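Milestone M4 deliverable, item 7.
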Amino acid sequence: MRLAKYFLLALPVVILAGCKQPKTSSEADAPKRTVFFDKSGMDTSVKPGDNFFLYANGKWIKDTQIPPSENSWGLGNILYNDNQKHLHSILDDISVNDNPTGSKEQKVADLYKSGMDTATINKLGYDPVKQLLAKIDVVKDYKDLVNLAATGFKDGDGFLLGFYVSPDDKISSKNVPHFDQTGLTLPEKGYYFNTDSASKKIRGEYVKYITKLFTLTGIDPTMAASKADGILKLETAIAGASLSPVELRDPQKNYNKFTVGDFQKLIPDLDIPGAFQLMGLKTDTVLVGQPHYYKALDSLLKSQPISVWKDKEYFGVLDGAATSLSKNFADAHFEFYGKTLNGQKKQKERWKTIVAKVDDGLGELLGQLYVQRYFTPEAKQRMLSLVNNLQNAYRDRIEKLDWMSPETKKSAIAKLDIITKKIGYPDKWKTYDDVEINKDTYYTNLQSIAKHNYNEQIKKVNKPVDRSEWSMTPPTVDAYYNPTFNEIVFPAGILQYPFFDNDADDAINYGAIGLVIGHELTHGFDDQGRQYDKDGNLKDWWTKEDADKFKSKVQVMINQYNGFTVLNNVHVNGSLTQGENLADIGGLAIAYQAFKNTPEGKSDRKIDGFTPDQRFFLSCAQVWRAKRSDELTRMLINVDPHSPGMCRVIGPVSNMPEFYKAFNIKPGDKMYREEKDRVKVW
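Output delivered:
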């Protein structure tokens, strides 16, 4: 739930290489890039007005196979793999050194080496979690279970309570404890109730997976299967008390402030003050995202057999640790999550998995080494210039809106003008001083990181918010808008070709990274972001008339996207994806307006046979070039607030008159929309 408060671009990848890479001797003679658009991947037999995504990408789609170790493939995936090689190179280089104990080099190198030491990991089996499993074994009743769950947070092993610390949505300068719904292993509540064949198959495979993990600990297969059935039934009951992904989008509905005493009254059979003491949590008030979950938890802890609860948490430990245990556990984990849920046919190479673990666990240590080697100050300055250009274009669009009152416009522009811009990497790095890393204790290393992360949160409780913090690591290829900080963030990883290249013409850069910038700016004014004021507080700054007009315009877009389908008539959820669709449509319009202020945008000079406007739209379309497995597509339709890639191209351009002009789109073309049916928000 916590990440729902960060509005991500969600490109077809999460990490890749930085912007301007220092040349090695072998690279020094490499020819300079002169081509920034892939004509060879187009399918010009498709009319631009019938399916612009396939026109821009169709041949590439036909010719490309998803590698067996991937569940999707596209420009982003290719760059992600290239970037893993860069990170791998950094780790290999420093791993041969005698690094000082406690240095960033020692910590990231030894974490990497411990993860690559499969001989030791396999020898240990599931020994690393036996102590925790033994604690579950001796639980006698639900009160013991709650105490164990609360105590475990200090060791990174907490459960039952969806706890984290972040700003109070209505007092954004103060950090407070949050408690959100938790307890489900499958992606969202619908997986427990849907009656289609795909959902039934997933539930069946889930039971097999639970059974497998239990049998790997020596439990009789028949008994293991019985335990798995009980866990599925218990999680189904929890799912019944959980909100759906669409319901979780409403920030007001998911903001519920309680005193500790009132929270105790909500769940009278759980000793909340006692649990907080075991967690090391000192506070008078808490924010409870979904109170109904906690009321149901109070009831289920008493009504469901303690043996089933113990089985669930026993499985939870094994499931959470599986990828860090011996090969048989990791293989079982992959069979369910990799194959069944994501359609991945083969596991990734071990080094790729561990590189990602290092970036995830010690990201701002590895990130320092990364930006030293792969990111330049010039790239940061160029990106800031682009952001400022997009910001000016957005301001102009708001001022000229014909549906918004002067009063609301004034507040919107005030919010836009003070938005914080973070580019490349943090100004202040985390130190991880309390994290101990040893080259031959992989699981213990991960536990040390988990303890650090928890301690970092506890220290923030009821303290002022540090707005210098980042929620992504520097190598990440993505971007986000954070409403409580009113900030847009662009890690170094996204600031490179094909999203950005200093030598590319403006049509390419504005169609790609310009779209990214405009997307994140628009998140400050989408269905969720618009509910936060310029200081990041959840506060209504709209006139009622303007809010009603906004909702009416957004409903047109929801209806449009509800009509998009994948996988033989599986419909996109227009309500779930509305924020991202707004950001895509608004972001493209803002990027286009900013592009038209450039010399190329004002010219008619063709490159590669295309006008500047055509290159702008084609650049945008190729950003979303990717293929996904059917399994991953089906899962993301249910849980992802982003529409599928094809929809992220067809949707925005079909609402832009400038696109119609650029490609001579006429009535009768499949993508043609009457002007009255086009989305006109930002």
